[in-house]
Amino acid sequence: MTPPDPTGAEAHFRALESLYAAAPINRLFESRLEIPESGLARIHFEIQETHYHAAGAAHGTSYFKMLDDAAFYAANSLVTDRFLLTTAFNLLLTRPLRAGPVVAEGRWISGQRRVFVADARLIGPDGEEAARGTGTFMRSQIPLAGLPGYRAA
């Protein structure tokens, strides 16, 4: 038996997951977006040695990408018509990450009109937090429905 097609919020979440997977930048990173509910997003990410800086741990660009993506998609899960844009993002890097699985968990905090605020944290393979970040996001003029990849799976 074929499961029913998702509708409403579920369809939006699956379409955002598809949009994430279709983004060209994500060909450079082994990662997967999961949106289990409105205002919550998880990026399952694999740190590889190709992400290392000269001292043998993940470069800050990897931290930023995972944190920004998780917070962004947590916020965009609340918006069904427009693509959001990151307007500011603050990072706190507390532990080095080395090769292995990492989860970035983003949560919407406030705002639903002009500015959305969401935060995210990185959890390393040992279950410990390695970083956190907070971002602000605004609605763009870009309709989600017009973006390649935005479709229910």
TrEMBL record:
Top-rank taxon, per record: Bacteria
GO molecular function terms listed in the Swiss-Prot or TrEMBL record: hydrolase activity
UniProt KW keywords: Hydrolase
Entries under CDD domains matching the protein: PaaI_thioesterase (cd03443)
UniProt keyword annotation of Hydrolase present: yes
Annotated ranges, domain Thioesterase: 56-130
Annotated protein name in UniProt: PaaI family thioesterase
Enzyme Commission code(s) on record: 3.1.2.-
